[in-house]
Specification:
This protein starts with a strand and ends in a 10-residue tail after the last helix. By secondary structure, it is α/β, with parallel strands linked by helices. Helix content is about 35%, strand content about 15%. The strands form five sheets. A six-stranded mixed β-sheet has the order 1-2-5-6-9-3. The protein contains 16 helices and 21 strands. The chain folds into three domains: about 5-125, Roll (Sulfate adenylyltransferase); about 130-260, 3-Layer(aba) Sandwich (Rossmann fold); about 315-490, P-loop containing nucleotide triphosphate hydrolases (Rossmann fold), CATH 3.40.50.300. The structure holds 3'-phosphate-adenosine-5'-phosphate sulfate and adenosine-5'-diphosphate (ADP). Adenosine-5'-diphosphate binds near residues 334, 335, 399, 426 and 476. Pathway: Sulfur metabolism; hydrogen sulfide biosynthesis; sulfite from sulfate: step 2/3.
Length: about 500
C-alpha cells in the first residue's frame, strides 16, 4: 500500500484510548524524517532506538539531555496525522511505497506542530535507500576502524584542495585515521558522495568513507552537535567543525588555517610568509564560475572533483527555469505568456512549454472547479509539471491566476530545487481587467451568475514577493515581454540574445 492511512478503520482520534495490538497504520514520512529512520536503524543515533516521547523532547529542549541524563542535542520526532497517531504500530513506507520500518507507537503525543508517534523503530526488510551498500551499520564501521585517533569529517559540499589540505594537516598532527561521512543532503546526494570519492587520491591512505543521510537542522549549533554524536557513533574520536562546541561527545577541532603559496600549493599558514600567499576563491566567485560554465582553476581543485562539482551545479545555460505569471482574469497573463514563448523559441536553446490556464484545466486539471481547494490543486499540479520541465533543462511558462500566496510559494519551492524561478505579477488594475472583459465573465460575476470569481467574489492575494510587476494598462505587450526577457538575462538564465 503506498497511500497513507490506517487499515483497521477510523480510530476516532483519541490516542488515550488503548489501541488493539492488531491496529497497524501505514505512513509515508517526509524525506528528512525517513533519513532519521535510516540513521536510527543504522545505530547512528545511540542511545536512541526510536522516536522520542513528549517527556524526552521536553528534556532535550530544556536541558539538551535525555530523561536518563544522557546528553542529546536535538529532538528526533515523527509527525503524523491524528488518526495515524492512534495506531499501535505505524509501518513507514518510502515515497515509492516500499515498507522501510515499523514504529512501535508506545506513547503518541501532540503539540502545536501536530501529532507525533513515539517508540522504537525496527526494520521490516533489508534496508533500501540511496547508496545503501556503501552504508554499513555504525557498529560495523566502528569495529573495522584501526586503533587510535579517528578524525571525523562530515562534508556537505565537495572537498577542494583547501579543505583537503586541512584534513591532511590535522590527520598528520593527530596521527589519526580519517573517517569521512559525507552528509547526503540536497537534491543530488549521490553526486556529493561521488565528489568525495573523487577526492580519494588527495586523501591520506588511511581513510574510510561512509555516506550518512544526516539532514541539516535549522539551529547551526545543535546541527553541529548532532553531527558530533553521529561521528562518535561511527567511531570518530575527533571532529573537524567550523562551529565551536561545548558538550560535544568527542573533541571538536576548528579547521586549521591553510594558504595558497606562490607555487599554488596549499600549506599551513604558519609556513608561508604573508607576502608569499596568494588569494583563494571566494564562494561568490566559485558560484560565478559554475554559473557561467568556466573551468575551475587547477590550484582550486582537481579535474575529477571539478567534474562532480559541475554535476552538482551545472552552468545556468544548461539548467531549466520557470516563469510563473500571476494576476487577475484579463490582466494579460496568457497574452504575455504566449509572446514570451515565441521570443524564447526564437532565441533560446531550451524547449519551451506553455502551461496556460485554459489548456491545463482541460487536460492535467480536468474536473477541477474554482473553490479555494481546487485552485490550490490546480496551481500546485502546474508547479509540479513546471518543476519537472525545469529539472530536465527546459523552460516552463505558466499563466494561472494563482490567487493564493501559499500555492505560489509551493511552486517556487518545487521549482527552485530544480532550477530557476521567476514570479511575474501581471498587476493590471481590476478596473482595466473588467473593462476588457473579453469573455464576459466579469459581467456575469457582477450579476451573480458566475460565483467565486477572482477579484469580485473570490480573493486574489497580491504578491509581495514578485520578481517583476507589470501593469499592462501602462505597458505595451512588447514592453512587458522585454522586461521579462531583461530579467532572465540579468539572472543569467538566457545568455545569447540576437535582436530580431
Ligand atoms: N470563478 C472563476 N474565477 C476565476 N476564473 C474563472 C472562474 N470561472 C472560470 N474562470 C476562467 O478560468 C480561468 C482561470 O483559471 P486558472 O486555472 O488560471 O485559475 S486558478 O489559478 O486556479 O485560480 C480564467 O481565465 P483567465 O481569464 O485567462 O485568467 C477564467 O477564464
Ligand atoms: N499591454 C497589454 N499586454 C497584454 N494584454 C493586453 C495589453 N493591452 C491589452 N491587452 C489585452 O488584454 C487581454 C488580456 O487577456 P488575457 O491575456 O487572456 O489575460 P489573462 O490570461 O490574464 O486572463 C487581451 O485581449 C489582450 O489583447
Amino acid at each position: 500500500m503506498s497511500a497513507n492511512g490506517t487499515d483497521a478503520g477510523c480510530p476516532g482520534g483519541n490516542v488515550d484510548v488503548p489501541a488493539g495490538p492488531q491496529r497497524r497504520a501505514t505512513w509515508v514520512p517526509e524525506p528528512a524524517e525517513l533519513s532519521d529512520v535510516e540513521l536510527l536503524l543504522d545505530g547512528a543515533f545511540p542511545p536512541l532506538r526510536g522516536f522520542l516521547t513528549a517527556d524526552e523532547v521536553e528534556s532535550v529542549r530544556t536541558r539538551q539531555r535525555l530523561t536518563a541524563d544522557v546528553p542529546w542535542p536535538e529532538p528526533i520526532v515523527l509527525t503524523v496525522p491524528q488518526e495515524i497517531a492512534a495506531a499501535a504500530e505505524v509501518e513507514l513506507h518510502d515515497v515509492e511505497g516500499a515498507p522501510v520500518a515499523v514504529v512501535r507507537n508506545d506513547a503518541a503525543w501532540s503539540d502545536a506542530t501536530g501529532w507525533h508517534v513515539a517508540g522504537p523503530v525496527e526494520a521490516v526488510d533489508e534496508p533500501t535507500g540511496v547508496l545503501r551498500r556503501m552504508r554499513p551499520p555504525a557498529e560495523q564501521v566502528r569495529a573495522q576502524l584501526p586503533a587510535g585517533p579517528v578524525l571525523g569529517v562530515l562534508p556537505e559540499s565537495p572537498l577542494h584542495h583547501r579543505e583537503l589540505a586541512q584534513i591532511r594537516q590535522l590527520a598528520a598532527e593527530l596521527d589519526a585515521h580519517v573517517l569521512l561521512l559525507p552528509r547526503m543532503t540536497g537534491p543530488r546526494p549521490e553526486v556529493l558522495v561521488q565528489s568525495v570519492l573523487a577526492a580519494g587520491p588527495e586523501l591520506p591512505e588511511s581513510t574510510t568513507i561512509v555516506p550518512v543521510p544526516l539532514v541539516r537542522r535549522s539551529d547551526p549549533k545543535r546541527d553541529a552537535l548532532l553531527a558530533a554524536h553521529v561521528a562518535a557513533a561511527y567511531g570518530a574520536t575527533h571532529l573537524i567543525a567550523e562551529t565551536a562546541l561545548e558538550r560535544a561527545p568527542i573533541q571538536v577541532l576548528e579547521p586549521p588555517e591553510v594558504v595558497r603559496d606562490q607555487a599554488d600549493r596549499w600549506r599551513p599558514a604558519a609556513q608561508v610568509a604573508p607576502a608569499d600567499s596568494r588569494p583563494g576563491l571566494s564562494d561568490e566567485r566559485l558560484r560565478e564560475l559554475l554559473d557561467s560554465g568556466e573551468d575551475l582553476p587547477t590550484w582550486f581543485t582537481t579535474p575529477a572533483i571539478a567534474e562532480q562539482q559541475r554535476r552538482l551545479h551545472p552552468p545556468l545555460a544548461a539548467r531549466g527555469f520557470t516563469v510563473l505569471f500571476t494576476g487577475l482574469s484579463g490582466a494579460g497573463k496568457s497574452t504575455l505568456a504566449r509572446a514570451l514563448r515565441d521570443e524564447l523559441s526564437r532565441h533560446d536553446h531550451r524547449a519551451v512549454t506553455l502551461l496556460d490556464g485554459d489548456v491545463v484545466r482541460r487536460t492535467l486539471c480536468e474536473g477541477l472547479g474554482f473553490s479555494a481547494e481546487d485552485r490550490s490543486r490546480n496551481v500546485r499540479r502546474i508547479g509540479y509539471v513546471a518543476a519537472e520541465i525545469t529539472r530536465h533543462g527546459g523552460a516552463a511558462i505558466c499563466a494561472p491566476i494563482a490567487p493564493y500566496h501559499a500555492d505560489r510559494d509551493a511552486v517556487r519551492r518545487m521549482v527552485r530545487e530544480a532550477g530557476g524561478f521567476v514570479l511575474v505579477h501581471v498587476a493590471t488594475p481590476l478596473g482595466e481587467c473588467e473593462r476588457r472583459d473579453r469573455k464576459g465573465l466579469y459581467r456575469r460575476a457582477r450579476t451573480g451568475s458566475l460565483p467565486e470569481f477572482t477579484g469580485i467574489s473570490a480573493p486574489y492575494e497580491f504578491p509581495d514577493d514578485a520578481d517583476l510587476v507589470l501593469d499592462t494598462s501602462e505597458l505595451s505587450q512588447d514592453e512587458a515581454v522585454e522586461r521579462v526577457v531583461a530579467l532572465l538575462r540579468e539572472r543569467g538564465w538566457v545568455r545569447s540574445w540576437i535582436s530580431a
